[in-house]
Amino acid sequence: MSVISAFLLCLFGWQLTSSAVFAHNLAWGALPSNLDPVYPFQFLSTSFASDDGYTCAKDKGCKIGCCGPIDSTGSGYCGFGPEFCGKNCTSNCDRKSECDPGWGKEWSQASTCPLNVCCSKFGFCGTTKDFCGDATVVSPQCSGTSAKGRTVGYYEGWNLERPCGKMGPPDIPLGYYTHINYAFASIDPQTFRIAPMDNLTASLYQGVTALKRQQSHLEVWIAIGGWAFNDPGPTRTTFSDLAASEAAQDTFFGSLISFMQKNRFDGVDIDWEYPVTDERGGRPEDYVNFVTLVKRLREQLNQTGRKYGISITLPTSYWYLRGFDIVNLEPHVDFLNVMSYDIHGTWDSTNKQLGPYAFAHTNLTEINSALELLWRNNINPERVNLGLGFYGRSFTMKNPGCKKPGCEFSGGARAGECTGTPGVLATYEVNKIIQKGGTEMTLDKDAAVTIVTWDKDQWVSIDNQETLRMKMDYANKRCLGGTMVWAIDLDDGT
C-alpha cells in the first residue's frame, strides 16, 4: 500500500460500523446518512478519487488536514503534523490531527484515541491493521454456557397499533426470558418527571409486570428513551439536560422510583441515543455527566431498600460509542445491552463509503470487531448482553440475477403486511413468506445469518434457529453474561 493510499484509508476509513439504531426507533423509518463505516472496504477507493480530497493547491485548500508544500506542478498533498502543517504549510495550517502518533501536543487534538483504539502514523484513530500494525486485541475466551444465564427481551408496547401481528401482554411467551424491558417510557422535558410515551403504552404497564406471577424470577424493567426520543423535537436534549443538572436528577429519581413502585417494575434501562453526538442532541459534557447521572441513580435506588436494576444500551458504532465513558459507567450498571443489529440497511445507499449494496444487518464478523471496543477497555464480559434481532433488513435487488451479499439494491423490499414499512420485515412475516414456497435460503456461515430471496428481486437477511445458535455459541465463547432481543413481539415463536 502506498503512503497516499494508506493516508486515504486513515482519512476516511476510521469508523467501525453503522450504528444499531433502527430497532429502538418508534417508527420503522430511514436512518441518518452521516455514518461512515469501513465495511466493506472495496467500495471506499472510488469515492476518494472523485472527491480528490487529498490534494491541494495555492488556491485550493484541504477538506481534511493542512495543505503541505506545493511542488513544481503547483499541487501539494493534505495531511497532518509538522510535515504538512509546519513551516512549509501552504494553507489550513492550524488544523490538528485526531491523535498524536509522536508529533507532540502542538500538532494533535489529543494524545490518544477514544476507547483506546489505535493511532495511525498519519494521526487518525482506527482499529484495523492500517492503524494498529501487528497489535491485536485480547478477547475473552470461555468454553462454558455463560450467555444462557440472562435473556433480555424488549417488548414494544405500540405493537398493538399494527393491523396484524399484534402481541398483547397475555400473549408474551413465558419461560424464554429472564428479563422483559418494556419500551418505552418518556421524560417530560420541562419537569424531568417520568411520562408515558402515549396512552396505549401506559395502559399496558401492569399487564406486562403481572406476568411475574406466572413465571418465577422473571424481572420486568422499564426502558426509557429510544432512538426517536433524541430526534428533533421537545425531548431532543432532555437526556443531556438531565445529566447536566443535579436538581433535575433529583426530580427524575423521585418520579422514577414512584413510577416503578406503582407499576411493579424491577429496574430501569436507560436508552440514550446518543450522548455527546451533536446531531443527536448531545453535548461534549455528556461524556462526564452521564457517569454522574448513572452513579447518582444507583445511589438513590439503593436507598429504597430493595434491589432495582440498571442497564444502559450501547451502540456498536465507534462514532457513537466514543461518547460513552464505558469504563466509569460499568461499575454502576447491572449490564450493558449491545445493539448488535442494524449494521446495514437501505440507508447505506446515501453513504458514499458504502453505497447501495446489500449486506446482512447482523453480521457476526462485524459484531466481533465491535465488541473488541469493549475488550480494549477491559469491560467485564459478564455484564454484556449480545443484541439479537427478531426482524430482517430487506432490499429490492437492482439486478435479479445478482442476489449475493454485496450485490446492488434499488431500494427497500416490499413492506410487510403487518409492519408496513419497505426495507424491514418481522420474523413472523419472513416465516410466512417461506411457508408460501418459492424462496431460496442461503446460510452465510461467516456472518452467521440466513439470506432469503423470493419473487426474483426480494432479499432479506434474517436470523433463524440455526444462526441464533451460532450467535449464542459466539456469545458463550466470548464469556458474555447474556443476550438481548429486539423485539419479543416481532417473533411468532417459530
TrEMBL record:
Enzyme class label: hydrolase
Any single GO BP term: chitin catabolic process
Keyword field: Carbohydrate metabolism, Chitin degradation, Chitin-binding, Disulfide bond, Glycosidase, Hydrolase, Polysaccharide degradation, Signal, Virulence
Record carries keyword Mitochondrion: no
InterPro entries membership: Chitin-bd_1, Chitin-binding_1_CS, Chitinase_II/V-like_cat, Chitinase_insertion_sf, Endochitinase-like_sf, GH, Glyco_hydro18_cat, Glyco_hydro_18_chit_AS
Gene: ChiA
Disulfide bonds listed in the record: C113-C125, C118-C132
EC number of this enzyme: 3.2.1.14
Family that this chain belongs to: Belongs to the glycosyl hydrolase 18 family. Chitinase class V subfamily.
Protein name: chitinase
Pfam families given in the database record: Chitin_bind_1, Glyco_hydro_18
Chitin-binding type-1 domain segment(s): 96-144
Residues of the signal peptide: 1-19
CDD domains listed in its UniProt record: ChtBD1
